[in-house]
Amino acid sequence: MQSIRLKRLFAAIIGTALFLDGAYLISLNKIHLGTVLPLLIGSGLLVFALFYPKIQLFVHQTRYRHILWRIGCWGFLLWSTSVLCFFIYLHLASQNNAQLTPVKVIIVLGSGIEHGQPSATLAQRLNRAAVLAKQQPNIPLIMTGGLDFREKFTEAEVMSKYVQQNFSISPTRIWLEDKSTSTDLNLKNSKPILAQLNIQLNEPIAIVTSDFHTLRAAAIAHKQGYRHIITVAAPTPLINRYNSSLREYFAYGSGWLLNEF
């Protein structure tokens, strides 16, 4: 009996946290798998905690239901474990970024704009890129990202304006890749710009992105022929960190299935 109470209490606490997390971010129009899934899982855990006796009564009415229940519970446990392992792997990988050596160009991957301004996640990427640009003052920057829904300016334009205003980076150093809507296209559409700059794919190229995104970005770049990639991890705001990592879990899996890398 005591173990059952602890299970219900644990489910209620975790369920409430996940539900409120997902609901809050969705209220900010951040609607994607990384926010919807925690909301659904949290709702399921709350239902489990509140209606446990009725659920158990229903499950044990037939042997078939009991077997399905056990399979579902073990499946959820295994999936949760795989997500936790992926989070740990992402964290360790982002901590192992090497000291930045001299590079030929800095490519900054987009991450969405909100009301004409970089999102909190994108601002962190731009802040990180600007520091690198100050350290290596002669190299160009490529801002990547097309036109977001309901926005007047492309993501690349907003990114360029941000680093000019906040870090006094000369517009003559900034090149815009303003047609793409994904990491795959960001890197693919940056190739003509690299050609204009006389930069070869086997030369050192820095790719600035969020810590949770470095592994997939590097894998996609290598698939496209980039041979000397240096990924630079920008910190993800705490409010978005775990939801972004959860979305990346599925994106990494789908990218592998779709042969993106």
Automatic annotation (TrEMBL):
CDD domains: YdcF-like (cd06259). One of its GO terms (cellular component) is plasma membrane. The chain crosses the membrane at residues 35-55, 67-92. It comes from the Bacteria. Residues 105-249 form the DUF218 domain. InterPro entries: Cell_Envelope_Assoc, DUF218, Rossmann-like_a/b/a_fold. The keyword Transmembrane helix applies. Keywords: Membrane, Transmembrane, Transmembrane helix. Pfam families: DUF218. The keyword Transmembrane helix applies. This is DUF218 domain-containing protein.
